[in-house]
Specification:
About 35% of the residues lie in helices and about 15% in strands. The chain is an alpha/beta fold. It has a single domain, classed as Rossmann fold (3-Layer(aba) Sandwich), CATH 3.40.50.1820. Strands 1-2-7-9-11 form a five-stranded parallel β-sheet, with helices on both faces. The protein has a two-stranded antiparallel sheet with strand order 3-4. The chain has a two-stranded antiparallel sheet with strand order 5-6. It is globular and about 55 Å long.
């Protein structure tokens, strides 16, 4: 533990200096704070030209290029990404690095930053029911199911949010407005796709992942209840990837330890073991990869299971296998969510 901390300290200091600047949150706060979604309004008010729709429908979710991201996907419907950082200061800066990586790879910044205060990730000490309520608020207004990415204790929290949505802690979860930072007096939303009122409990997100989750963090009071639930993935996510490090003394992951994630029901669950040389503390610090054209090309051509072939002229390949795998899944579910939204939009237009 001491050796890991010593090696990570200089890197975290650099992240601290780089993370001081925070972009301002959205400016239309007053409108959104009071706005109630009307039946059919999310689909009807979306403006996606037919030519762009055709390009989105033509995309192969398994193979999305840099040009596809920047000139097609980023111009169309985009799901919200909810990042969850670890719990020991200043490890939150590592997840900020991941947020900057996403922006550098072409993901719309306003779909990553918190609309209330502009931060790039949530704390694992926030109430998990609150985060579940925020996810419902996003879906009601966007019409696309959010994606959740968690690191360290934030990985535990990501799975805990899935259990909140499954009703494993309560049979009702209140909608949480991120602009007012208050719970609304309701436990249902107007589903923007079906047009029907539905409870927050049972809502499904498109994709979620956790890296470095487990270990002593499960002994903390806010995570006690996850000791028997962490590896069990409920049906409130379409696809989930659990990442472990070859040797992770913090998350208690060791070769052959058997700490694999499994689906309780129909969720598609993958388990990926990262190289033993990856650090639990800095595995999500990948912002610099997006600044290197050679690595951006490699990351955009990455396919799951790839373990080598890094470009010879890359400035750094640190944590690239995790970054490539997560980015592949994000692009895939970005395409699937955008196509799902547009099919619903076009079906609603034909019914009018």
């Amino acid at each position: 533990m001491r050796l890991i901390a010593c090696r990570a300290f200089p890197f975290l200091v650099a992240l601290l200096l780089a993370g001081c600047a925070t972009a301002p949150p959205d400016t239309d706060r007053a409108r959104l704070e009071a706005q109630r979604v009307e039946k059919g309004s999310v689909l009807a008010e979306s403006r996606v030209p037919p030519a762009l729709q055709n390009k989105i429908f033509a995309l192969d979710p398994e193979h999305v290029s840099d040009a596809d991201v920047r000139t097609v996907l980023a111009e169309g419907p985009t799901p919200r990404i909810v990042n969850l950082h670890g719990g020991i200061y200043p490890v939150h800066l590592v997840m900020e690095s991941f947020g900057r990586f996403l922006i550098g790879m072409g993901y719309p910044e306003n779909k990553i930053r918190h609309p209330g205060d502009g931060r790039l990730s949530h704390s694992p000490y926030e109430n998990s029911a609150q985060i579940a309520g925020v996810i419902a608020w996003y879906y009601e207004r966007d019409g696309l199911r959010p994606l959740i990415i968690g690191h360290s204790q934030g990985g535990i929290q990501a799975v805990k949010v899935l259990h909140e949505l499954a009703g494993d802690y309560s049979d009702a979860v209140r909608v949480w407005n991120p602009l007012t930072d208050r719970a609304e007096d309701r436990t249902t939303i107007l589903d923007p796709i079906t047009g029907r009122e539905r409870p927050v409990v049972g809502l499904k997100v498109g994709y979620a992942s956790a890296v470095g989750a487990g270990g002593a963090a499960l002994l903390l009071p806010n995570q006690w209840s996850m000791a028997g639930r962490l590896r069990a993935i409920p049906d409130t996510v379409e696809a989930f990837t659990g990442y472990s490090l070859g040797v992770d003394l913090i998350a208690w992951d060791l070769p052959g330890a058997g700490g694999t994630y499994r689906a309780i029901g129909t969720a598609k669950v993958r388990n990926v073991e990262l190289p033993a040389g990856y650090s639990h503390v800095t595995v999500a610090a990948v912002a610099e990869l997006a600044e290197d054209p050679a690595m951006r090309e490699w990351l955009n051509s990455y396919v799951p299971g790839q373990t080598d072939g890094f470009p010879a002229n890359a400035k750094s390949v640190a944590n690239a296998l995790w970054a490539g795998d997560v980015w592949h899944s994000i692009k895939k579910h970005w395409v699937l969510e955008a196509q799902r939204f547009l099919r619903a939009k076009n079906a609603a237009a034909r019914r009018q």
